[in-house]
Amino acid sequence: MNGILVIDKPAGLTSHDVVARLRRILKTRSIGHTGTLDPFATGVLVMLIGKATRLAQFLDKDAKEYQAVIRFGFETDTGDLTGSPKSKVQSPKSVSIKEIESALESFRGEIEQTPPMYSAKKFAGKKLYELARKGIEIERKPVRVKIYELQITDYELREKTNDFGFWILDFGLKISCSAGTYIRTLAEDIGRKLGVGAHLAELRRTRAGKFEISKAVSLEKLEEIVFENKLDKILISMNQAVSHLPEIKLSAEEINKTKNGIKLKTESAKIADSEFCRMTDKDENLIAVGIYSAAEKTVQPKLVLV
Prior knowledge:
The chain contains 7 helices and 16 strands. It is an alpha+beta fold. It folds into 3 domains: 3-62 and 210-239, Pseudouridine synthase (2-Layer Sandwich); 64-208, Pseudouridine synthase (2-Layer Sandwich), CATH 3.30.2350.10; 245-304, Archaeosine Trna-guanine Transglycosylase, Chain: A, domain 4 (Roll), CATH 2.30.130.10. Strands 1, 2, 3, 4, 5, 8, 9, 10 and 11 form a 9-stranded mixed beta sheet that branches. A 5-stranded mixed beta sheet has the order 12-14-15-16-13. α1 packs parallel to α5.
C-alpha cells in the first residue's frame, strides 16, 4: 500500500497519536506525515503511506492555510489556550477592528519570527517543548517566514465572568503562510503590537499545499472506509501527490535503466536545470524522482520508488 491520505485531525491527539491510529487501522507500520499539528489544533494532516514516506521532502515545504481564533487579554506560557496566563490581563475593550487591521498590515509579507519554546524545533537533539516543560529556556535565532494573507473573519468582545470578570476579545483570522510559520508566535506578536496580551485560542489547518480540508476524512470515517474495502477511493497516488513537479515519460527500456539508477538521455524545454522531475510510466505510475541537467540533457534518478 503506497499513497497519501488527508486526515482531519481531531483536537486532543498528537500527530504521533494519529500515526499510531493509522498503523492499527491500515495494518502497516510504514506511515509518516508532512508536518505536525499541536494537540489542541484540528484539521489537515497529510499522511504518507508505504513508499510515499520517501516523498516527504517534496511535500513539506508547501504553503499552509489556517483558520485561527486569537484571544486578546493576556499571554500564556505556551502561547495557546492550553497554557497558564503569564502576563497581566490587559483589557482589550478599546481595541477596534480598524486598529487590528492596521496592526495586521505590518505582518503581511516576509517577516521574522522567534520560534516559541513550546515547539517541535530541536536544540542539541532535544525538542524545545521538552526543555520548556523542565523550565529551561534557551535563546532562539529568528527565522524568516512569509505571510501571504491575513483576513479578519470574526470579532467578539465579551466579559469573561468566570475569571474575575475581565474582558477578552476573540477575533477570527484566515491565514495563508509559508511552511515553518508559527501561528502562536504570530498571535503573541499581534497582541504586543496592539499593546495587549494575546494567545492562540483555536487553530484549524484548512490546507497544506494542494491538500485541502474538503478532501480530509476523520479517523472514524477512515475506519468505515477500510472496513468497506473502499480505501482506493480516497488514497491519493504518489504521482498525484507530486504533480507539481514537471514530468518525464519513460519507455519500458528507460524504466529498467531507472530501476538501476542509470542516467537517461532526454531533452525538455519545460524543465529548468537542476530541477526535480517526476519520472512516470505510460499508466501514470510514479517510477522515480530525478534531477534534470540542461547542459547534459539528461535526467539522473535520485529517488527510485519501484
